[in-house]
């Protein structure tokens, strides 16, 4: 003997509709909880997408060579033997070009220097590199040309400046051919960068770019900050990575003293960080569902005590404890399910609104978060509805029926 | 057939034990018409609750149609309440949100009978109760007599063997009280056992077999015939 599901649902809907205020309160509690999960995970996901897309703009199939070994393998012996990581040199960089899968190589020297033209002067980041950097990082020129020579091992007094720096130093004058002072040296401006081109770490609008060796001279250092290597295909990344380590090791008297990281690895790290951030804020939002659950329990308990007569009667006409319990559980989960759907709708609308206000943020909540929020809400209804439902099932029908 | 053997029902009220039923021995044949009378608190309702499986005795044995039902599980007792017993209450206890026909169909819904079959049976019973034009009305739109008729429809829709009526006319005026009694007696003539608990001597006298209760024990039993 069991009641048809349709009848159970119909019966519960009838009971719910009869108390609109009660139903509205429960729907509100649940929908706020679910909506906050949808909104917060949407924001987290938006932040993740924003950061990963920023990193992707670094250029594709990129390997980054950094001097020094980040892993602590081996022993601390080399401290006593006086060995320190060798400098990464321009020749190291150029030697990497031998591999067929290596498309472009850009050595990078970084520093800051005073940049001045006539009376105007300001501190600016200085980047030393070669002609390959432009393509490798997908930058665009506004005027003139970029640095000369991919294999340039000589200093030359030319520079390319960012759009903001150009604006500040030259106002509306054409800077091409002008000589500016960087530190204690003179450089001729041969090009200006297009605006935009902002990517993590470097604000392209603000920098001066000069040939590698010029930068090394300027900052009085023989070493490179890092080497950017663009590989022809994604599949070759690992092979090239091994090749780089081997080549540099050979050049550094057999000592493996560089770290090669792929853009994928960086991206992966950020992806993990932001996914856990999303999980965290989603989890915090989920707490509000627990609060909603307690409200549901409260309201359901009131409902049970209001409907003792009904429960007694249902028992008298043949309902088992199990059936009564199911009826109340269905009522609770029906309310939470509808509340959850409303919450998802509210969350989506809010996300669209936020996206409208901040178009850069692609803050659509991930599907797994929406599904989890829905399931969590229904589970909340079941868990917090269980106690009132059990109380209803165990109600003494005689006392209930003796009353009017 | 109903057979009660040495039924006791003891309630614990605070420190005191209240003996609602003392050593009840009672046999009721199929199709009997029986009234239970007695002062308030004499145990009439306790007996009715035990007969209707809404309550279990503290000791003793209840046999229904040859089966001992005293120690059945809640689930099994629910099945018996559904199929063999019909309740009629003083306060009707119709669900206010359901229409007359939905109230009548409720036991069938709980029993999992298909909607089409429910409609068929409900129509028939509404017709015999003279309530066809009231089928869609909510209880609040019905008179007391009509409400009790709906409640009788609900009690008999599963065609039980026994109807247990607790003061069925207690909340009705004289005229509709008569109507209700007529309907119940009609059902009795069709073969359902009718057990009425009442304060009303006139109503009590109508039954073929009269039982008097004092202090939880049977003092008078006119017996069958």
Keywords:
heterodimer, A: 404 residues, alpha+beta, 2 domains, six-stranded mixed β-barrel, two-stranded antiparallel sheet, 13 helices, elongated, B: 225 residues, alpha/beta, Rossmann fold, six-stranded mixed β-sheet, four-stranded antiparallel β-sheet, 10 strands, 35% helix
Q: What's the structural blueprint in terms of helices and strands?
A:
The complex is a heterodimer of chains A (404) and B (225).
Chain A: H1 5-17, H2 20-56, E1 62-67, H3 77-80, H4 90-95, E2 102-117, E3 120-129, H5 132-136, E4 141-144, E5 158-161, H6 163-170, E6 179-182, E7 185-193, E8 198-199, E9 202-203, E10 208-211, H7 212-219, E11 226-231, H8 237-251, E12 258-262, H9 263-306, H10 308-316, H11 321-357, H12 367-394, H13 397-402
Parallel strand pairs in A: 3-10, 5-7
Antiparallel strand pairs in A: 1-11, 1-12, 2-3, 2-6, 2-11, 4-7, 5-10, 6-7, 8-9
Helix pairs in contact in A: 1-11, 2-9, 2-11, 2-12, 9-12, 11-12
Chain B: E1 2-13, E2 16-28, E3 33-37, H1 44-51, E4 59-64, E5 67-68, H2 74-84, E6 85-88, H3 100-110, H4 115-128, H5 144-156, E7 162-166, H6 174-189, E8 193-197, H7 201-206, E9 209-214, E10 217-221
Parallel strand pairs in B: 3-8, 3-9, 6-7, 7-8
Antiparallel strand pairs in B: 1-2, 1-4, 4-5, 9-10
In short:
With 404 residues, chain A is an alpha+beta fold. Chain A is built from 13 helices and 12 strands.
Description:
The complex is a heterodimer of chains A (404) and B (225). Helices cover 54% and strands 18% of the residues of chain A. A 6-stranded mixed β-barrel of chain A has the order 2-3-10-5-7-6. With 404 residues, chain A is α+β, with helices and mostly antiparallel strands. Chain B has a single domain, classed as P-loop containing nucleotide triphosphate hydrolases (Rossmann fold). Helices cover 35% and strands 28% of the residues of chain B. Chain B is built from 7 helices and 10 strands. In chain B, strands 6-7-8-3-9-10 form a 6-stranded mixed beta sheet, sandwiched between helices. Chain B has a 4-stranded antiparallel beta sheet with strand order 2-1-4-5, with helices on one face. Chain A binds chain B through residues 1-4, 7, 11, 14-15, 17-18, 309-310, 312-323, 397-398, 401-404, and chain B through 45, 49, 52, 54-55, 74-75, 77-79, 81-83, 87, 89, 91, 93, 95, 97-98, 106-107, 109-112, 114-115, 154-155, 158.
């Amino acid at each position: 003997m069991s009641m048809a599901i349709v009848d159970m649902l119909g019966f519960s809907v009838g009971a719910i509709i009869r108390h609109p205020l009660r139903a509205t309160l429960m729907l509100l509690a649940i929908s706020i909880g679910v909506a906050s999960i949808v909104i917060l995970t949407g924001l987290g996901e938006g932040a993740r997408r924003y950061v990963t897309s920023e990193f992707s703009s670094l250029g594709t199939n990129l390997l980054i060579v950094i001097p020094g070994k980040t892993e602590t393998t081996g022993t601390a012996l080399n401290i006593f033997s006086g060995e320190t990581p060798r400098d990464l040199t321009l020749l190291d960089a150029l030697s990497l070009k031998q591999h067929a899968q290596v498309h472009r190589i850009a050595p990078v020297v970084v520093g800051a220097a005073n940049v001045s033209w006539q009376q105007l002067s300001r501190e600016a980041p200085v980047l030393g590199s070669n002609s390959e950097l432009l393509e490798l990082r997908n930058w665009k020129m506004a005027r003139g040309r970029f640095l000369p020579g991919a294999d340039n091992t000589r200093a030359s007094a030319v520079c390319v400046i960012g759009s903001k720096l150009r604006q500040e130093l030259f106002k509306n004058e054409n800077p091409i051919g002008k000589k500016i002072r960087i530190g204690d040296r003179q450089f001729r401006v041969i090009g200006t960068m297009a605006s935009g081109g902002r990517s993590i770490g470097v604000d392209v609008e603000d920098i001066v770019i000069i040939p590698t060796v010029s930068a090394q001279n300027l900052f009085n250092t023989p070493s490179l900050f890092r080497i950017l290597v663009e590989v022809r295909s994604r599949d070759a990344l690992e092979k090239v990575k091994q090749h780089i380590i081997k080549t540099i090791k050979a050049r550094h008297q057999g000592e493996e003293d560089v770290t090669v990281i792929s853009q994928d690895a960086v991206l992966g790290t950020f992806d993990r960080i932001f996914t856990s951030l999303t999980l965290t804020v989603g989890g915090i939002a989920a707490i509000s569902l627990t609060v909603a659950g307690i409200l549901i329990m409260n309201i359901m308990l009131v409902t049970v005590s209001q409907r003792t007569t009904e429960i007694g009667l249902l028992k008298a006409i043949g309902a088992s404890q199990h059936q009564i319990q199911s009826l109340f559980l269905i009522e609770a989960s029906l309310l939470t399910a509808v509340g959850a759907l409303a919450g998802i709708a509210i969350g989506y609308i809010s996300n669209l609104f936020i996206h409208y206000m901040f178009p850069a943020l692609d803050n659509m909540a991930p599907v797994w978060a929406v599904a989890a929020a829905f399931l969590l809400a229904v589970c909340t209804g079941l868990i917090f509805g269980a106690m009132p439902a059990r109380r209803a099932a165990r109600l003494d029908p005689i006392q209930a029926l003796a009353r009017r | 057939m109903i057979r009660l053997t040495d039924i006791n029902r003891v309630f614990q009220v605070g420190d005191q034990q209240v003996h609602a039923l003392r050593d009840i021995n009672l046999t009721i044949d199929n199709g009997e018409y029986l009234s239970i009378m007695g002062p308030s608190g004499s145990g009439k309702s306790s007996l009715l609750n035990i007969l209707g499986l809404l309550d279990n005795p503290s000791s003793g044995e209840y046999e229904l149609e040859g089966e001992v039902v005293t120690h059945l599980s809640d689930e099994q007792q629910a099945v018996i309440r559904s199929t063999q017993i019909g309740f009629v209450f003083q306060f009707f206890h119709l669900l206010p949100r359901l229409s007359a026909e939905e109230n009548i169909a409720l036991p069938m819904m709980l029993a999992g009978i298909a909607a089409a079959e429910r409609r068929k049976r409900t129509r028939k019973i509404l017709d015999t109760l003279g309530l066809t034009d009231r089928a869609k009305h909510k209880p609040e739109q019905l008179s007391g007599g009509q409400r009790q008729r709906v409640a009788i429809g609900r009690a008999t829709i599963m065609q039980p063997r026994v109807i247990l009526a607790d003061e069925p006319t207690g909340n009705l005026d004289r005229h509709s009280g008569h109507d209700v009694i007529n309907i119940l007696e009609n059902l009795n003539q069709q073969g359902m056992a009718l057990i009425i608990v009442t304060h009303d001597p006139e109503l009590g006298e109508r039954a073929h077999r009269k039982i008097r209760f004092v202090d939880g024990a049977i003092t008078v039993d006119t017996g069958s015939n």
